[in-house]
Design a protein that fits this description.
With 304 residues, the chain is an alpha/beta fold. The chain has one domain: 3-Layer(aba) Sandwich (Rossmann fold), CATH 3.40.50.720. Helices cover 37% and strands 16% of the residues. The strands form four sheets. It has a seven-stranded parallel β-sheet, sandwiched between helices. Helix 3 runs parallel beside helix 4.
């Protein structure tokens, strides 16, 4: 059957993983997916002009155009809005005139108020979008989705800490540590005490595809519902790589202990994560080791 799902942002981290796992999904965007992803790609030069899609038969959209590098976003006045809010607004303005079954866009669990939430954190718990520019930009994506929700059936995914194989330089703790241990340089981590809900991209892809087939609209957590400390992550990576990771014992910031409540996701889809954190990290490490000579992430970081 011809795919009726399109994905914006296939050149990025999560998008490339979804496309590779689901080769019938059509990629749409300015840049094609990485070379190991073989999905059909339609080039769109400007997100404000989507007339190229007028004659394309699709009824489901996964929208992943954006930027999750909070380190950079929090240092630049308009980067969060320019990358995470404006493209979504332009796309939804076009999509409100299409007959869609589902449009999935992405926020973050960081919108939950770190001073008020109770673990496990469900979708009804208090939020605080005013912590920094990155979180504020994600809050605004949720507001843009609400604005268009009368004409477009939208699911806004509040995504947990995600990791998986990528050729991109990433700020995420698991991927960042793997890129470090694959480099010739010393590997370090700021603090190992925080607990996070780490989600492997293969599992994330499966959950997102299942959400496309539901009648639900609104906000939903996509996570594992299980917490693991950064210390656990460090030990797994050390065992796999044979490299020692130095702990700097710098003050921990952000959500010190976080686990999502995924009751809503499970009831909607029946989805459960297939990969343990050990399995997910092992797959990520082995694939990225194959790409290390090509990508040389450490050189890109040194040049920033």
């Amino acid at each position: 059957m011809k795919s009726k799902t399109i994905l914006f942002g296939g050149s990025g981290f999560i998008g490339a993983n979804i496309l590779e796992r689901y080769p019938d999904i059509i990629s749409v965007g300015r840049s094609p997916p990485p070379s190991h992803v073989k999905n059909k790609h339609i080039t769109i030069e400007d997100i404000e002009d989507l007339r190229t899609l007028d004659n394309l038969d699709f009824d489901k959209v996964i929208f992943l155009i954006g930027n999750s590098d909070h380190h950079k976003i929090n240092k630049r006045a308009m980067m969060g809005i320019d990358h995470n809010v404006t493209p979504l607004k332009k796309a939804l303005f076009y999509m409100q005139n299409r007959e869609l079954k589902k449009f999935v866009c992405f926020s973050t669990i960081l919108v939950y108020d770190a001073k008020k939430y109770v673990v496990p954190v469900d979708e009804s718990q208090p939020t605080n979008p005013y912590v920094n520019d990155y979180i504020f930009s994600k809050f605004l994506t949720e507001e843009v989705a609400k604005l268009h929700s009368q004409k477009v059936p939208i699911i806004t995914v509040r995504l947990t800490n995600i990791y998986g194989p990528t050729k991109l330089v990433r700020p995420d703790i698991v991927t960042n540590l793997i890129q470090q241990v694959l480099s010739p340089n010393e590997t370090s981590v700021q603090n190992i005490t925080p607990v996070r809900d780490f989600l492997f991209t293969y599992d994330a892809a499966d959950a997102i595809i299942k959400l496309l087939d539901t009648n639900y609209t609104g906000v939903v957590n996509v996570a594992t519902g299980v917490g693991n400390s950064i210390e656990t992550v460090v030990k797994i990576i050390e065992n796999i790589s044979g490299r020692k990771i130095k702990v700097l014992n710098e003050p921990a910031t952000g959500h010190i202990k976080y686990v999502s409540d995924i009751t809503r996701l499970t009831k909607l889809t029946g989805w459960k994560p297939k990969y343990s954190i050990e399995e997910g990290i092992k797959i990520t490490y082995e694939r990225m080791r194959e790409w290390a000579d090509e990508c040389r992430w450490w050189e890109a970081k040194e040049s920033e």
